[in-house]
């Protein structure tokens, strides 16, 4: 970055080894579980990636973001993929959509399977219309192959993850119970490569929060604070996605937990004496940050604001000082 840049950071390289390690972690965990249950070490993990969505009935494509479990295992940015891991061998396969010729006119070059094999460091890449035949051919035990599909409850949203579906799935046995808890547990503890991306997402988001604080003034709109944050994390940090919808709340709006949605769109004018509560976090290669900070919009705390702010800060610091392995 040039010395005149308001950022001291630049986007780090993304090591695809990160996702190879994630697949290996799942492979070992799943095999350990099957062994402990005296079940055969056969079958395939099969995940379906996210699909592109249009805006209602129009041809406007919303900006795609990969489904998180699929992103964790394969790191794939594109829509319409499937991914598989062979429980017997650890072999990883991606299945890519077979695109029509006019895709090249509207969307760009149609890449061959070898491109994705090199990009995502998997054992093999084939087409989604080959899933049935390829998996049947690769299965070397007797009977119908078993597919471990992702199905489980997200307790934040109360929604279920979507098991993979494809033409010919009736030729397979399916297990909807085993994969989700094991894969979810794999995601809990992060590798050093994952931690580095999370650290970066936090660092660029922290830098953006400070930039917003510097430029905030009475009379501005809340959405201008959001805009400054989004600009900084994308312009200097390469973060096209946020971890969640930005909350730029001032005054009474700060009491609304998920302020900033379409019905409350960060549009209040900042008033003299208001406190702001900014809850914004950038995402980098599927790894997110989540940062909330409060400050007076005019730069000066009232006595009551200072009292509350200091009490919360002291509690915050006390919790961090006591955090260590083994502490509940």
UniProtKB/TrEMBL annotation:
Ranges for domain Aminopeptidase P N-terminal come to 14-158
Top-level class of the enzyme under EC nomenclature:
hydrolase
Keywords of the record, alphabetical order, are:
Dipeptidase, Hydrolase, Manganese, Metal-binding, Metalloprotease, Protease
Could you say which EC number(s) this protein's record lists? 3.4.13.9
Cofactor(s) needed, names only, are: Mn(2+)
A GO BP annotation: proteolysis
Gene Ontology molecular functions:
metal ion binding; metallopeptidase activity; proline dipeptidase activity
The record ties this protein, via Pfam families, to: AMP_N, Peptidase_M24
Transmembrane intervals: none
The record's listing under PANTHER family reads: PEPTIDASE D, PTHR48480
Task: Please report the name of this protein according to its UniProt entry.
Answer: Xaa-Pro dipeptidase
């Amino acid at each position: 970055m040039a010395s005149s840049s308001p950022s001291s950071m630049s986007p780090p390289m993304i090591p695809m080894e990160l996702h190879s390690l994630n697949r290996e972690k799942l492979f070992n965990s799943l095999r350990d579980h099957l062994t402990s249950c005296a079940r055969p070490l056969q079958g395939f993990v099969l995940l379906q990636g996210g699909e592109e969505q249009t805006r209602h009935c129009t041809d406007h494509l919303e900006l795609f973001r990969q489904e998180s479990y699929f992103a964790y295992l394969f790191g794939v940015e594109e829509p319409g993929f499937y991914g598989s891991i062979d429980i017997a061998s650890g072999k990883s396969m991606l299945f890519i959509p077979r695109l029509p010729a006019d895709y090249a006119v509207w969307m760009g070059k149609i890449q061959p399977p070898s491109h994705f094999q090199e990009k995502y460091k998997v054992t093999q890449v084939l087409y989604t219309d080959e899933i049935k035949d390829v998996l049947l051919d690769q299965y070397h035990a007797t009977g119908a192959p078993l597919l471990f599909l992702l199905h489980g409850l997200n307790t934040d949203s109360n929604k279920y993850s979507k098991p993979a579906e494809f033409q010919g799935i009736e030729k397979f046995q399916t297990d909807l119970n085993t994969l989700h808890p094991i894969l979810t547990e794999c995601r809990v503890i992060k590798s050093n490569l994952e931690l580095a991306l999370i650290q970066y997402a936090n660092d660029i988001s922290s830098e953006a929060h400070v930039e917003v604080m510097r430029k905030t003034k009475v009379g501005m709109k809340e959405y201008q604070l959001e805009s400054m944050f989004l600009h900084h994390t994308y312009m200097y940090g390469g973060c096209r996605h946020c971890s969640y919808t930005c909350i730029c709340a001032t005054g009474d709006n700060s009491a609304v937990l998920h302020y900033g949605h379409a019905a409350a769109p960060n549009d209040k004018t900042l008033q003299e004496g208001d406190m702001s509560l900014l809850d914004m976090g950038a995402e980098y290669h599927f790894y997110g940050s989540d940062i909330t900070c409060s400050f007076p919009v005019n730069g000066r705390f009232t006595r009551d604001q200072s009292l509350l702010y200091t009490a919360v800060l002291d509690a915050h610091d006390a919790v961090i000082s006591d955090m260590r392995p083994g502490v509940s």
